[in-house]
Design brief:
This protein is α+β, with helices and mostly antiparallel strands. 16% of the residues lie in helices and 33% in strands. It contains three helices and eleven strands. The protein has an eight-stranded antiparallel β-barrel with strand order 2-3-10-7-8-5-4-11. The chain has a two-stranded antiparallel sheet with strand order 6-9. A hairpin with a 2-residue loop joins strand 2 and strand 3. The protein starts with a helix and ends with a strand.
Length: 178
């Protein structure tokens, strides 16, 4: 019975992973997700830690605009290869799915370069890459044992949880004017 339930839940997660879609023509829709997204707080570690456990992008990078369900935020991209590749694909509008009451995610058809590390703690506003092709926007803070590649961070995430709402969220990432 437990095995059947576990298989059923894995199937639901797989269906959810293929459910997000890129809306803008600059970004392809996600079909056939290849990585399984971890749920927050589960044991185990996804991905590999960067040597020495340091995170990519500790220096500040380019400012972008992130519009979540019509509400605008400013974010700072990390100073790393993944963030630069992400910036090259802007503007990008994604339909991001809900997971665990703390994050929105969307798998893309094409991946990014990775420099994974285990942050130990996720902060509200973190913009991360899980695997090479899953963009994740966290709107709540929590401890984690999973590994990610840092893309950037919302500068002031105090309104983010309210903006993302429940269920899917339409999120547009764009270069900042001025």
């Amino acid at each position: 019975m437990k095995r059947t339930l576990a298989l059923f839940l894995a199937l639901l997660l797989l269906i959810a992973c293929t459910g997000c879609a890129a809306i803008s023509p600059e970004t392809p829709s996600s079909e056939g997700a290849q990585d399984e997204l971890p749920s927050a707080g589960e044991g185990g570690q996804a991905g590999q830690s960067a040597e020495g456990g340091t995170q990519e992008g500790e220096q500040e990078g380019m400012k972008i605009t992130v519009t979540v369900n019509g509400e605008e935020f400013t974010a700072t991209l990390a100073d790393g290869e993944a963030a630069r590749a992400f910036a090259e694909r802007l503007p990008m509008t994604l339909e991001m799915s809900e997971l665990n009451g703390n994050e929105k995610y969307c798998y893309l058809d094409e991946g990014f370069p990775t420099a994974t590390y285990a942050p130990q703690r996720i902060e509200a506003g973190d913009l991360m890459l899980y695997g090479s092709a899953c963009v994740v926007l966290f709107y709540e803070s929590f401890s984690t044992s999973y590994s990610y590649t840092r893309l950037g961070k919302i500068d002031d995430a105090s309104r983010l949880a309210a903006a993302v709402g429940r269920g899917t969220a339409t999120v547009t990432f764009a270069s900042r004017e001025g």
